[in-house]
Design goal:
Blueprint lengths: L2 E3 L2 H18 L6 E5 L6 H9 L7 E5 L1 E3 L10 H8 L8 E3 L9 H7 L5 E4 L21 E4 L2 H7 L12 E4 L2 H5 L3 E7 L4 H9 L17 E6 L1
Parallel strand pairs: 1-10, 2-3, 2-6, 3-5, 6-9, 9-10
Antiparallel strand pairs: 4-8, 7-8
Helix pairs in contact: 1-2
This protein binds 2-amino-2-deoxy-6-O-phosphono-alpha-D-glucopyranose.
C-alpha cells in the first residue's frame, strides 16, 4: 500500500470513473455492491457521479455509518446527506444504512448480496475509518459506538453547536470493511497528511484503525492537499 498524491478534482474523477465502469458492467450480470462514505471528502465524487450518465439500476449501496438519534429529515444525518447529495439524482436499485433498526443485521445483509465490490473510505484526524475510533479491534463488526471527544469536536463544524453533535453512532466494523473486495481511501487537506502517513507506513495497531488497511490485498490510498 502506498499513498498516491494528486489534485482533489483528479482523485475524485478517477474514483467516480471506477464506480461508473462497475455500475455499467453490472447491467448484464451480477449486482454491483457499492460501499459509501460521508463527510466532506467524498463530496466531489458524488458530484461527479450525479453528472455522469450511469445506469445504477443494478447497484446496491451500503453506507458506512449513521449517527444515533438523527432521523433522515435531520440535515446532519448521513441519510439526509446521501439522499440529497446523490441518491435522489440517480436510479439506484436500493440504498442501505446501518440505522437503529438494521444495524444488527447489517453484516449478514452485506454477506447475503455477495459482499462489497468497492468501498469508498475517508479518514478521521485520529485515524478512524467510518466511526471505528482508536482502540477498535480488527475483528469488530457493525455495532453502536461512543464517539471520541476528538471526533465530536471535528464534526461539530457541521452543527450549530458542539452540544448538538450526537455522542454515539452505528458503524460498520473493521472486519466488515476489510471484507470489501476493493477499497479506495481518500484524504484531503494538509491536516490529514500526518495521520495518513501513520496509517499507511506506520505500525499496524488498533490505535490507528486505518492502519489495518495495510493488510488488505486491494486498497488504494489517495491524498490531495
Ligand atoms: C466522519 C465519518 C468518516 C469520515 C470522517 C472524515 O467522522 N464517520 O467516515 O471519513 O468523518 O470526514 P471528512 O471527510 O469530513 O474530513
Amino acid at each position: 500500500m502506498r499513498i498516491r498524491s494528486n489534485t482533489y478534482q483528479k482523485v475524485s474523477h478517477q474514483i467516480a470513473n471506477y464506480i461508473h465502469k462497475k455500475a455499467n458492467d453490472s447491467i448484464n450480470g451480477e449486482h454491483f455492491i457499492l460501499g459509501l462514505a460521508t463527510g466532506s471528502t467524498p463530496h466531489q465524487i458524488y458530484e461527479e457521479l450525479k453528472s455522469m450518465d450511469i445506469d445504477f439500476s443494478r447497484t446496491i449501496t451500503f453506507n458506512l455509518d449513521e449517527y444515533v438519534g438523527l432521523n433522515e429529515n435531520h440535515p446532519q444525518s448521513y441519510k439526509y446527506f446521501m439522499n440529497k447529495g446523490l441518491f435522489k439524482s440517480q436510479n439506484f436499485h436500493s440504498n442501505n444504512f446501518p440505522d437503529e433498526k438494521l444495524y444488527p443485521y447489517y453484516d449478514s445483509m452485506i454477506d447475503n448480496v455477495g459482499g462489497i465490490d468497492i468501498q469508498i473510505l475517508g479518514i478521521g484526524t485520529n485515524g478512524h475509518i467510518a466511526f471505528n475510533e482508536p482502540g477498535t479491534p480488527r475483528d469488530s463488526k457493525t455495532r453502536i459506538v461512543d464517539l471520541t471527544e476528538n471526533t465530536i469536536k471535528d464534526n461539530s463544524r457541521f452543527f450549530d453547536s458542539i452540544d448538538e453533535v450526537p455522542t454515539q453512532a452505528m458503524t460498520m466494523g473493521i472486519n466488515t470493511i476489510m471484507k470489501s473486495k476493493a477499497i479506495y481511501l481518500i484524504a484531503q487537506g494538509k491536516h490529514k497528511k500526518e495521520i495518513l502517513e501513520r496509517a499507511v507506513y506506520g505500525e499496524i495497531t488498533p490505535e490507528v484503525p486505518a492502519s489495518f488497511l495495510q493488510e488488505h490485498p486491494n486498497c488504494e490510498v489517495f491524498y490531495s492537499d
